[in-house]
């Protein structure tokens, strides 16, 4: 069972790590907001659903516009900055952690790849269903000792609706073989800066390298090596946001690169910018 990573003072239920915020409910105090900071790594899953109006979300340095009947989601470990100019009158924000997610009866493929599309548009009928489910969850979380199984049932319904919309957006069915991909993703997260070889990962997962390639390609659209490279560059960008004084050499060594020059070339190849150029953009 995963360990709860949800901040204890944010949970709205005595047995679950979960919180909902809407225009009239669930806002934290200014002191609590200041304590959690303007930007930081998410220790939980975050969702923003906008029915009317618009918002901007900044995740891993990218600004994403969220409009009417759109949902934005972010995953644990991503770097999120507080919303810039929230101008909507009808929205829900939802947060919960892996411990909460593990209690649901199924897996949700759209949550497995942190490099995937993180915004989903809904037709009016699906948006209404989503809004109604958010509202029911909000009502349930107004009382801290409500039955957690009831809350989990509606959370499962909500994520099922989102998962279905995500794969309609991608025009492909939900992929098979989730357990192997989950194992790969978790191994990469746990050993990212060790930069394990593809052969080593395959052995740990009791797969051939060809099978590992097929599983990762099917679920993420890229090869295992490309997945790890992309994940390392995302991690580099997060660390650059957290500490803007880190040198290229220090950053390269932190991420497990023995050659800072190679890291610099790889960073430019993936992002289209040099490390110095990326730091310059941060200061604008």
From TrEMBL:
GO molecular function, one term: sequence-specific DNA binding
Entry keywords, A to Z: DNA-binding, Transcription, Transcription regulation
UniProt key word Ion transport: no
Annotated ranges, domain HTH araC/xylS-type: 182-281
One Pfam family matching this protein: HTH_18
Domain of life: Bacteria
Keyword DNA-binding applies: yes
Secretion signal, residue range per the UniProt entry: none
InterPro entries noted in UniProt: Homeodomain-like_sf, HTH_AraC
Descriptive protein name: AraC family transcriptional regulator
Organism listed in the record: Dyadobacter luteus
């Amino acid at each position: 069972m995963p360990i709860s990573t949800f901040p204890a003072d944010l949970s709205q239920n005595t047995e679950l790590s979960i919180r909902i915020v809407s225009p009239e409910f669930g806002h934290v105090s200014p002191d609590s907001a200041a304590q959690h900071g303007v930007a930081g790594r998410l220790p939980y899953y975050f969702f923003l659903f906008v029915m009317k109006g618009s918002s901007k979300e900044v995740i891993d340095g990218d600004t994403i516009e969220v409009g009417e009947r759109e949902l934005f989601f972010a995953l644990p470990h991503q770097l999120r900055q507080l919303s810039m100019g929230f101008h909507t009158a009808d929205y829900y924000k939802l947060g919960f952690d892996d411990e909460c997610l593990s209690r649901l009866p199924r897996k949700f493929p759209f949550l497995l790849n942190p490099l995937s599309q993180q915004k989903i548009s809904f037709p009016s009928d699906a948006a209404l269903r989503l809004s109604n489910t958010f509202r029911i969850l909000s009502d349930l979380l107004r009382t801290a000792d409500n039955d957690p199984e009831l809350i989990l049932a509606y959370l499962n319904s909500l994520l099922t609706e989102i998962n279905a919309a995500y794969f309609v957006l991608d025009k492909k069915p939900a992929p098979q073989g989730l357990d192997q991909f989950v194992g790969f993703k978790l191994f990469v997260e746990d050993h990212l800066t060790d930069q394990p070889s593809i052969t080593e990962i395959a052995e740990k997962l009791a797969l051939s390298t060809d099978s590992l390639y097929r599983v990762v390609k099917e679920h993420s659209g890229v090869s295992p090596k490309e997945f790890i490279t992309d994940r390392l560059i995302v991690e580099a960008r997060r660390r650059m946001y957290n500490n803007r004084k880190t040198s290229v050499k220090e950053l390269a060594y932190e991420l497990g690169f023995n050659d800072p020059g190679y890291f610099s070339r790889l960073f430019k190849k993936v992002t289209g910018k040099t490390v110095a150029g990326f730091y310059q953009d941060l200061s604008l």
